[in-house]
């Protein structure tokens, strides 16, 4: 039996040392329930009583040897596998990678982000409003009477009698006033909708950026200061602004604002169509009725508001002459910006 044990030991060690992958089979073959060493240990009952402890001790040593060899080889194999995988996965950082085409920010988004950044730097907070609005927020509370032409079915996408796709970002003014008491200093960029047929300068969906400032003692001077600073930051330090009287239901007085053409500096060129000026926004002092509708006392507070078309600014800045190009998502067009 001693010899048998020695044979098992030798064979097991040999097999273990030459093993290249898993040691599991070898472990089962010798030490498993039906393994060779286990069989011997089971057969020990048939031995003489004085032989039993001797053989038992040898069997235990053999088991220990085999277990040690398994552990040692196991560690070696693990290390080998690691080395191999490290070699296989070696990264060549100088290798030219396969590059999938990389997109970039759309001119509308870029313009919107730049405008937002300028106002945020001046202390404005960005708020958003829903694109499906109430007729009340979009018209009534903005002092647009029931007979105002923009309320016509021809001009506006109604969802129900009392809800619509907002025609302007101005209803966010009402939402902001109802939510907080002054001081209020917010901007709100977003999509707006009008029932227009698409052409070079019209689209049924476009983007605006609304602004609202309300506090004690706000004047037209603040409006002019903020918008002139915006224009200089957006279009260049030489930019001049021109405030033309206008009419909006929600402001009194109201003004449309032009900036001197940043291409020709005001002399007149193709971009400004010879005018020297480009209209970029509508603005004015918030009408007392609008303040009241927003829950703010017009005898205590005053404010100004403005709204500008984002596409318009993106187009003049990038020299785009047809609005539709910006929505077609033709990569050849978009790649230019
Ligand atoms: N909502 C106006 C429009 O869509 C733009 C506008 C004009 C917004 C004057 C204002 C404002 O806040 O004060 O044409």
What this model shows, in words?
Helix content is 40%, strand content 19%. A hairpin with a 2-residue loop joins β6 (241-248) and β7. The longest helix is centred in the first third of the chain and has 38 residues, at 51-88. It has 2 domains: 2-88; 107-334, 2-Layer Sandwich (BirA Bifunctional Protein, domain 2). With 337 residues, the protein is of the alpha+beta class. It is elongated, with a radius of gyration of 40 Å. The protein has a 7-stranded mixed sheet with strand order 1-4-5-9-8-7-6, with helices on both faces. The N and C termini lie far apart (87 Å). Residues 168, 170, 210, 248, 251, 282-284, 305-307 line the site of 3,4-dihydroxyphenylalanine.
List keywords for this structure.
9 strands, 337 residues, 7-stranded mixed beta sheet, binds 3,4-dihydroxyphenylalanine, alpha+beta, single chain, elongated, BirA Bifunctional Protein, domain 2
Write the layout of secondary structure elements.
Layout: H1 2-18, H2 24-31, H3 36-43, H4 51-88, H5 107-121, E1 125-126, E2 132-134, H6 135-138, E3 163-165, H7 171-179, E4 184-193, E5 205-215, H8 220-235, E6 241-248, E7 251-260, E8 277-286, H9 288-293, E9 302-309, H10 310-318, H11 331-334
Helix pairs in contact: 1-4, 5-10
